[in-house]
Amino acid sequence: MQTRLQEMKQSALAQLGQVAEAAQLQELRVKYLGKKGELTELLRGMGSLIPEERPVVGQLVNEVRTALEDAFANKQASLEEAALTAKLTSQSIDVTLPGRPVQAGTMHPLSRIIEEIEDIFIGLGFDIAEGPEVELDHFNFEMLNLPKDHPARDMQDSFYITEEILMRTHTSPVQARTMLKKEGKAPVKIICPGKVYRRDDDDATHSHQFTQIEGLVVDKGIRMSDLKGTLLTFARQMFGANQQVRLRPSFFPFTEPSAEVDLQCFKCGGEGCRVCKQTGWIEILGSGMVHPRVLQMAGYDPQEVSGFAFGMGVERIAMLKYGVEDIRHFYTNDVRFLNQFNRS
């Protein structure tokens, strides 16, 4: 048995020296070390040995197995190294060739406008508040002085999921939620950016999904003049130091009094042109003093505090600032359009 083991070892090592390919190496490994290989066959014959010989033969079997496994591993490493060397020799790399340019992206114009608006209002002491896009009717309408069957709900044709759950039509629910969290404590000074959803037909100026930023201030002694001063500061930082704003009476269920806010036409400077339809003014947002009923429902005493609120469409601001004529450009993912806003 010992003689056969030594002969098998020498034969395997001799054949291993002739191997030149990985496939040959695998065949040889199976021949000698596989489940039906020669070493396994020899092990099966150990039962015929006398008890005194079995330990000696068993030790020799282990030594032969270890020697062959090491030899096969070394041979495999040698073949892999040779294959790598041959590949590197045949596939030279010209390190002087210019690299492939990396196509860097750019910030989306809407994201840029949102950041600009946030920076302006953060500089005025506002905090940023967020809320869910799938909202309860209670917060989206009822907390904003729009009870069930209120006719003003028709102004915001909504995507309802159930009778009490809908896709929010504005970011005003964030204002209601924030005031409730404050538990009647002032001051409240927030802006609420986020996506909103309405059942509009998509065209050059309307989209079923768009972005709003609303603002809310609640404190003692808040007046309409504070609202106008805040919006004038915003307009001048966003559109230029010489900008003017105009407030026109309007109606919103959650503010009283309410006002539409116009910006002096940046194209003609108020002289009248095609952009402003010869009026010299462009509407940019809605605003007003927070309705006393809204304050009461949120836990505030309208005899002690007052507030103002405003809401603007980010797409509207972006269209005015960048001269974009069709809102759909913001959502079509046309790289040619987006590359115009690359800061570099």
Automatic annotation (TrEMBL):
Mg(2+) binds at E256. Its main location: cytoplasm. Keywords: Aminoacyl-tRNA synthetase, ATP-binding, Cytoplasm, Ligase, Magnesium, Metal-binding, Nucleotide-binding, Protein biosynthesis. InterPro entries: aa-tRNA-synth_II, aa-tRNA-synth_II/BPL/LPL, Phe-tRNA-synth_IIc_asu, Phe-tRNA_ligase_II_N, Phe_tRNA_ligase_alpha1_bac, Phenylalanyl-tRNA_Synthase, tRNA-bd_arm. Binds 2 magnesium ions per tetramer. GO terms for molecular function: phenylalanine-tRNA ligase activity. It is found in: Cytoplasm. Its cofactor is Mg(2+). Gene3D superfamilies: Bira Bifunctional Protein, Domain 2. Its EC number is 6.1.1.20. It catalyses: tRNA(Phe) + L-phenylalanine + ATP = L-phenylalanyl-tRNA(Phe) + AMP + diphosphate + H(+). Pfam families: Phe_tRNA-synt_N (PF02912), tRNA-synt_2d (PF01409). Residues 111-320 form the Aminoacyl-transfer RNA synthetases class-II family profile domain. Belongs to the class-II aminoacyl-tRNA synthetase family. Phe-tRNA synthetase alpha subunit type 1 subfamily. Tetramer of two alpha and two beta subunits. PANTHER family: PHENYLALANINE--TRNA LIGASE, MITOCHONDRIAL, PHENYLALANYL-TRNA SYNTHETASE. This is Phenylalanine--tRNA ligase alpha subunit. It comes from Brevibacillus ruminantium.
